[in-house]
Structure to design on (402 residues):
């Protein structure tokens, strides 16, 4: 079995996901619909394929947990892979990540979303069902900061989906399981790493939610994702994850630090032949904060209906904007991304060449500040080291450097 050819075929057909299961044919999800391919897959072939993808070093972890998450570039396509044990054997669920630059314009999102990331602090929640494009929208918001402001961005992901090339921003990306043992540890570390912007890939556990709320209260802009179908449900889900005796304090903390909630879903446009994101956007006005503190989440929708002047969007209002939208971006295969499915490491300066002694000390010319570089300019090619991330983690990196 050739995984590269399967990925290439899925990519050519515009699939978002590829599923491999022993005894069943391969299946791919195209525009939200599953399509079955070829003949049933042999269990032994899938087992060997899974072991090759995971690697001998991490294979014992898979045997212990019966599942494993990783990201990998296969046949030029960045993939998020979940290897799982099922009743039939070992299967793979593969998400094919977008191959074009993730920006607000190229995702056909409303330009008002750019205003959300200009805030110096607070919590921005991105919500929606699985596969609705939350990761792409998150990448677009981070890319907006990267292209416009000199800020220190730290991302915590499991696994890393989009790898950013620093422009104006200084970007660090950490993968849970490879670079840090857990979301909780990475969040504790981040508060000592001088970040301006913190991105939390997933909020599953109450402890992760608590540390994320704390980070947004300490002067950082925090972006995080949660699964829900509406903005109000996203807030309610966070509060209900905590024990009832502390929910009053959590609601007050959430009301104080909240900057915005974006709920997203994808709809296929037959006239455009592309899937377009539809959004619901909640801005925490004084009435909204009062409802959050009191736990009256069911009242939030009434305020959103009349909150257009505050930058709020209901599903219906956003659909009306999409119907009147005249310019659309259609992704093409030859576009080169900045927020890209290719593994690019942080850029480190090398030591300057020695200067011949003339008896007089010469002052070195100061380097231009990071913020003075134009947004469209690439970092200079001369005098830098490109370090490719090593999928095996710190041990493999040490071996490579030795």
């Amino acid at each position: 079995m050739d995984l590269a050819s399967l990925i290439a075929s899925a990519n050519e057909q515009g699939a978002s996901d590829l599923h491999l299961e022993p005894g069943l044919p391969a299946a791919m999800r195209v525009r939200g619909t599953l399509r079955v391919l070829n003949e049933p897959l042999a269990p032994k072939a899938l087992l060997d394929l899974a072991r090759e993808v995971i690697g001998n070093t991490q294979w014992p972890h898979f045997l212990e947990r019966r599942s494993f998450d990783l990201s990998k570039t296969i046949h030029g396509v960045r993939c998020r892979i979940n290897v799982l044990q099922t009743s039939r054997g070992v299967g793979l669920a593969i998400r094919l990540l977008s191959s074009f630059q993730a920006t607000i314009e190229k995702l056909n999102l409303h330009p008002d979303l750019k205003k959300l990331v200009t805030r110096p602090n607070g919590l921005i929640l991105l919500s929606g069902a699985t596969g609705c494009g939350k990761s792409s929208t998150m990448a677009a918001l981070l890319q907006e900061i990267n292209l416009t402001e000199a800020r220190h961005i730290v991302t915590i992901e499991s696994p890393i989906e989009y790898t950013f090339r620093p422009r104006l921003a200084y970007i660090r990306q950490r993968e849970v399981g490879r670079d840090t043992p857990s979301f909780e540890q990475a969040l504790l570390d981040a508060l000592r790493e001088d970040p301006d912007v913190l991105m939390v890939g997933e909020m599953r556990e109450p402890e992760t939610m608590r540390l994320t709320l704390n980070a947004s209260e300490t002067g950082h802009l925090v972006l995080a994702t949660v699964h829900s179908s509406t903005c109000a449900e996203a807030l309610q889900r966070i509060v209900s994850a905590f024990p009832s005796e502390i929910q009053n304090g959590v609601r007050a903390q959430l009301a104080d630090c909240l900057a915005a909630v974006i709920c997203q879903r994808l709809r296929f446009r037959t006239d455009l032949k592309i899937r377009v994101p539809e959004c619901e956007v909640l801005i925490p006005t004084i009435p909204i904060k009062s409802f959050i503190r009191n736990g009256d989440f069911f009242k939030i929708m009434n305020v959103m209906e009349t909150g257009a002047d505050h930058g709020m969007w209901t599903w219906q209002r956003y659909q009306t904007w999409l119907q009147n939208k005249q310019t659309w971006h259609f992704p093409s295969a030859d576009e080169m991304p900045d927020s890209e499915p290719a593994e690019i490491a942080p850029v480190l300066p090398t030591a300057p060449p020695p200067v011949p002694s003339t008896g007089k000390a010469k002052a070195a010319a100061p380097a231009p500040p990071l913020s003075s570089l134009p947004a469209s300019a690439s970092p200079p090619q001369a005098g830098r080291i490109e370090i490719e991330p090593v999928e095996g983690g710190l041990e493999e990196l040490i071996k490579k450097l030795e």
Remarks:
- The CA atoms of residues 158 and 309 lie 37 Å apart.
- The first strand starts at residue 15 and ends at 20.
- The chain has twelve helices and 17 strands.
- The two ends are 34 Å apart (CA to CA).
